[in-house]
Amino acid sequence: MISFEEARKKMAENIPLKGTERVRFQQTINRVLAEDIFSDINMPPFDKSAVDGYACRRADLQKPLQLLEVIAAGSVPKFSIEEGYCSKIMTGAMLPPGADCVVMVEQAIQTEDGIVTFTDARTKNNIALMGEDVSEGNKVLNKGTRIKAQHIAVLAAVGAVKPLVYERAKVVVFSTGDELTEPENKPGNGKIRNSNSSQLIEQIRSTGADVSYGGIIPDEPETTYKMITNAVSGNDLVILSGGISMGDFDYIPELLTSLGFEISFRSIAVQPGKPSVFARSHNCFILGLPGNPVSSFNIFELLGKPFLYRLMGHHFEVPLVRMPLAETYTRKAINRLAFVPATINKEGKVCPVSYHGSAHINALTDAQVLFSVPLGIERIAEGDLVDVRFI
Q1: What pLDDT shows up at residue 339?
Q2: pLDDT on residue 63
Q3: Residue 255 in contact with residue 217, Cβ under 8 Å?
Q4: In 44, 241, 256, 306, which residue has its Cα 20 to 30 A from 85's Cα atom?
Q5: Which of 85, 41, 43, 90 is nearest to 66 (CA)?
Q6: Average pLDDT for 249-275
Q7: pTM higher than 0.70 for the full model?
């Protein structure tokens, strides 16, 4: 059994990057940039008004001014601003030459014959200067960025309509065990529905990887061998839930060795999630997760997700927040690092949810976070700070 940190390090060693491809920017959500992105223009591209108002000279604010024109966004001013004149201007419109401020419409009175007076001469400039946000040639996005909606807006703004991104990792998910039946079937005696695969597929899909479902692997060595052999061909990562512990039918680790996989670890000092396997053969990886759904969920979030992101060029790190416990937490077994599902109350305190163990999947339905309980710690008092990661 190795520590959680050791497992993380082993899974981060010598990860081969996927290839690259150019993709239309609208289809890049959750993809990872394989190049830096630079702006081909200044932003703003010209001096523009930050408000609806009147473009004028600050030196003229104390006297009536003659209106020259109305400048709409997207149009080019026809007149320069000289002494005694102003132009009405819309937010985002190009500032006319000669103007050094824009007075908001709320601070102005305009007569029918186009005379403008200001009720308050105190005003900010209300001008967005050319290039004050981004100058032409500036780097706007870094290689390795996982693209979110706000990044797509930046790509659009700088004309990076077909950025270079890493290819999606290909992942296949299996559940193992004769006790499993698919969700559409009502379980008979000794059977349970397969919930792990559906959960894992959605966790994987959220990373942007290309995921497929391989089915239920029965507790039969020959069939298991064939299904895993077929899965290894054409996939970067094979994820198995169950079949990796110490039971009579948990023979997958030995089978992986016979297939030429080098096993990095097969148990971790984590609660829940001790029976976890990570193996590699060339550029194909296998992650064996515990069969219980809470364990499976946790280990993928803690170890599987960072690994998958790294495979696709993104160095994913979960932000940890220190927050106080809303109530005292105790446990009996202290020989493993624990991750406990919890909610956050209105006072910003961590509330452990009702949790009966690693098979209690309903414990996760309301959980917003996992908080960690270090190895060797039996009790954390109300108000003490804990490390929290959002899920």
Answers
A1: 94
A2: 94
A3: no
A4: 44
A5: 85
A6: 88
A7: yes
Output the six-digit token pair for 201.
């597929």
Per residue in 209-221, pLDDT (tens digit) is: 999 999 999 988 8
Cα R_g (the chain), whole angstroms: 30
What single letter denotes the amino acid at residue 191?
K
What would the pLDDT profile of 268-280 be if each residue is shown by its tens digit? 999 988 999 999 9
Q: Is 255 strand, coil or helix?
A: helix
The residues near 171 (Cβ < 8 Å, ≥ 6 apart) are 204, 209, 210, 211, 212, 235, 236, 237, 238, 239, 308
Closest alpha carbon to 201 in 341, 304, 355: 304
Query: Could you identify the residue written with the tokens 């550029």?
Result: 283
pLDDT level of residue 252 (50, 70, 90 thresholds): confident
